[in-house]
Design goal:
Length: 311
């Protein structure tokens, strides 16, 4: 019943909160300029920041993508449905509003069962950036979407907490060679096991990917990235006014602490990141001190989000 209601709203040009395995998306008809404009308006998102189009599977992506590289085909076969966005040449039918006027489009097939049901019932691609105000913390629960966007979104499909908790990895191609534009739900190591060495500098292609501004995913409270030594050296008076986010064994005495994973599990840490930032943001601390994870596996994605939150 909820899926049918969502489809009706989407066909009427409205937006719907959609769960995915990464974060909740603000979904709208990808081929409707008014629906796309509604997404930008609800999020207060600048028009120069392109949207990712969500499809049910590889075959459905052909409605959006004009040309596939062999390597893009391999990556889609391995990681779709899943948390991987591919940047490829767009078909003329894709509105320029979705791609910020660029000739490239970001496409992915989410694996969350509710997202899959919605996409197949709707019968076409959905633009679905994260369901939050532009630059703020991405939502990983339906409640977080409602808290952030309220009555501006007539329906939020509740698919439970997001499994992965950080956005998709984004891969583009320069002369057929893969480039990682955003670390995300598929670790770099897994991508390179299929694609070989992947570059990290997107240059002009970075404009084709969302979430590339220096400040993004930010709570209202100032975030400061610190070393374990700095976290230990902070005096007790200052600790009593600060929040701390990290993993493993954490120093004591902070006003609020969010341990992303006491067991130092990358997947657990990524899944808890945005919820932890929201929790600390609501805790009345003066600053949030963030301890980065090792720069490997999903730690890259966690660190990327922390760096952008701290700018």
């Amino acid at each position: 019943m909820e899926i049918e209601k969502a489809v009706g709203l989407l066909r009427a040009g409205e937006v719907v909160g959609m769960p995915t395995e990464t974060v909740y998306g603000l979904a709208g008809d990808a081929f409707s300029a008014p629906a796309l404009a509604r997404i930008f308006a609800v999020k207060k998102r600048p028009f120069f920041d392109p949207l990712i189009l969500h499809v049910a599977d590889r075959a459905a992506a052909d409605r959006c993508v004009a040309e596939w590289t062999p390597l893009a085909e391999q990556l889609a076969e391995k990681f779709w449905p899943g948390p991987l966005t591919l940047i490829l040449p767009k078909r003329p039918e894709v509105p320029d509003l979705a791609t910020s006027g660029l000739p490239l489009v970001g496409v992915r097939a989410p694996r969350h069962p509710a997202a899959q049901r919605l996409l197949r019932a709707f019968g076409g691609p959905l633009a679905a950036p994260s369901a939050n105000r532009f630059g703020r913390i991405s939502p990983t629960t339906a409640a977080a979407v409602r808290e952030e966007l309220g009555a501006a979104v007539p329906l939020v499909l509740d698919g439970g907490p997001c499994e992965i908790g950080v956005e998709s990895s984004i891969v583009a191609f320069i002369d057929g060679e893969p480039v990682l534009l955003r670390a995300g739900g598929v670790p770099l190591e897994a991508l390179e096991a299929v694609a070989g060495k992947i570059g990290r500098e997107g240059g002009r292609l970075s404009a084709a990917a969302p979430g590339q501004l220096p400040q993004h995913y930010a709570p209202r409270t100032r975030v400061r990235i610190v070393t374990p030594e700095q976290a230990e050296e902070l005096d007790w008076v200052a600790r009593a006014q600060a929040g701390l986010i990290g993993w493993g064994a954490l120093p004591e005495g902070y006003k609020a602490v969010c341990n992303l994973s006491p067991a130092k599990n990358f997947a657990e840490a990524a899944a808890r990141l945005f919820g932890a930032l929201r929790e600390l943001d609501a805790a009345g601390v003066e600053e949030i001190w963030a301890l980065p994870l090792p720069e490997e596996d999903l730690g890259r994605a966690v660190n990327d989000r922390l760096r952008r939150a701290a700018v």
